[in-house]
Write a structure and sequence with these properties.
The chain is mainly α. The protein has a single domain, classed as Helix Hairpins (Orthogonal Bundle), CATH 1.10.287.1080. The chain is built from 6 helices and no strands. Helix 1 packs across helix 4 and helix 3 packs antiparallel against helix 4. GO terms for molecular function: ATP binding; phosphoribosyl-ATP diphosphatase activity.
Length: 105
């Protein structure tokens, strides 16, 4: 899975130099954080709606859109996929309740 995310990360980085009228991602970068967050919000809502509809195919499709737009945000903010996977790895063996408590201290 990391290979797909890394490849997509590379493509998203390349889109930073693409023309806005030729690249959807470049147009999002050009519009900035608020537009990217708006897309993430829309995709999150679509995941919820697909889940309520009960179709796994729709859920997969919408989660892919949500992940994609989240990766756009990470690229825009210069956060590497590796940083996220490192954080997730750090949490292995740590109770979710304990991790949440640690964040609140």
């Amino acid at each position: 899975m990391d290979e797909v995310l890394i490849k997509l990360e590379q493509i998203l980085e390349q889109r930073k130099s693409a023309k806005v009228d030729k690249s959807y991602v470049a147009s999002l970068y050009n519009k900035g954080t608020d537009e990217i967050l708006k897309k993430i919000s829309e995709e999150s809502t679509e995941v919820i709606m697909a889940t309520k509809d009960g179709s796994n195919d729709k859920i997969i499709y919408e989660i892919a859109d949500l992940w994609f737009h989240t990766l756009v945000l990470l690229s825009f903010k210069k956060i590497k996929v590796e940083q996220i996977t490192n954080e997730l790895s750090r949490r292995f063996g740590l109770s979710g309740l304990k991790e949440k408590t640690n964040r609140n201290n």
